[in-house]
Amino acid sequence: EAKTGGKNRACLFRPEMAASFRRRTELENEMREGLASGQFELHYQPIVEIASRKVVALEALLRWNHPAKGRISPAEFIPIAERSDLISDLGEWVLERAATDIVLLPGEVSVSINVSPMQFRQPGRLVAAIRAIIEDHAVPADRLELELTESVLVDDPDQTLATMAELRAFGIRFALDDFGTGYASIGYLATYSFDKVKIDRSFASVISENEASRSIVELVQHLAERIGFTVVAEGLESRLQVEAIAATGICLAQGYFFGKPEAIGPLAKRLSASIVIPER
Ligand code: C2E
Ligand code: MG
Ligand code: MG
Ligand code: MG
């Protein structure tokens, strides 16, 4: 209960806080049911080689179509799942779904899956789930990439390195997601040997105007060439942004300019006809 008096008291009783608490509790309770009854869906967004417009990979992005509340953003429900014990169930559903969908795609297109830091805290369970999809679905491990955020590196570096090594032995590849916004330093790029580093969307919108941001992006690309990882620019929406990114030497990009996340059916059909995205 709140203490009376003090200047924080008004904050403790704001009605919208009660409403958001209620919503979080409802979503947490409804998530398990939603998972069992088919309310979740995977959408896929292309990762494209800028010069050729070839799709090299698809990022799997989770969607929750709630029967009463409508489409709920993963930015809202993933943190809720992470605070309950549901994130591993969700994560395993995503792995299974992606393993089934990958069969519909041309062999040269890989699939990139977001993995929560909380899943990395149960390494045995994560490794078992990934081993299972490789074996049960005969998914070639080298077509699967796991996207980690910087926080997993900060949490428990030794355990993370060990888990990554175990998964790498299967042939799994790793991308560092949202680089440039979290807590990780440039030193992590050398320690963890990521295959890809995804530069956060916040850089895309400023790179053509802001010299300092452009210098940071150029530095990351320079390190990529020296250390041996590939940079992906996230969140590109305009031709101007694509040109500014390409000028830094970055070859891979993702964003609404190339395609929004969508269901596998129509996307797989178009990619089977051609993996090159038409110029727009
Ligand atoms: P993320 O992994 O960084 O994914 C990229 C996000 O940026 C996606 O949001 C995508 O729809 C959005 N995006 C892509 N291109 C553009 C663009 O040009 N402009 C703008 N404004 N946005 C763009 P989404 O799908 O809402 O996902 C949000 C976050 O939720 C993801 O960020 C990821 O951290 C998390 N997430 C999504 N699916 C999963 C999942 O299966 N498991 C886990 N653990 N997290 C997931
Ligand atoms: Mg991601
Ligand atoms: Mg990202
Ligand atoms: Mg993000």
TrEMBL record:
It comes from the Bacteria. The keyword Zinc does not apply. Keywords: Membrane, Transmembrane, Transmembrane helix. Residues 24-275 form the EAL domain. GO terms for molecular function: catalytic activity. This is EAL domain-containing protein. The chain holds residues 496 to 775 of 775 of the full protein.
